[in-house]
Design brief:
about 90% helix, about 130 residues
Length: about 130
């Protein structure tokens, strides 16, 4: 059987085409592709799922992350983000800029106040505990 297969492999395709017929070959290829393509991707991937999840995806993410981190400077230059931000800020009115700065600073001051209250409370509790032992 192996010798027959080797003979078939060495046989010129045009001779096979003449023997079987173009239309029959076309139909066979069409049926094979239709059977293969009609399967849901999940069914095709199932045998490889563990390998994909444990090996391929981490490698792709790692390589992609390394490539992207090496390209950040070039991407920023190509996008001209500094120029875009500068031109957008220049179009703002002074009132709008004041409003933005005040809203940001109010939020930050509020967080600083909360943090101060939290730290002050923790320090006072710690002082009370130490005071009990002394």
């Amino acid at each position: 059987m192996l010798t027959e297969w080797n003979k078939l492999i060495d046989y010129p395709f045009t001779a096979i085409e003449e023997l079987v017929g173009k239309e029959r070959i076309r139909q066979s290829i069409h049926q094979f592709v239709a059977r293969t393509v009609e399967k849901p991707l999940a069914d095709v991937v199932v045998p490889y799922q563990a390998k994909i999840m444990n090996e391929w995806i981490p490698k792709v993410v790692s390589i992609g992350g390394q490539w992207l981190s090496g390209q950040v400077e070039e991407i920023v230059q190509r996008l001209q983000l500094a120029d875009i931000v500068r031109s957008e800020v220049e179009t703002f009115s002074v009132e709008r800029l004041e409003e933005m700065i005040l809203s940001i600073s109010q939020r930050e001051f509020k967080m600083i106040t909360y943090l101060g209250a939290l730290l002050g409370g923790l320090i006072r509790i710690l002082q009370g505990i130490v005071g009990l032992w002394i």
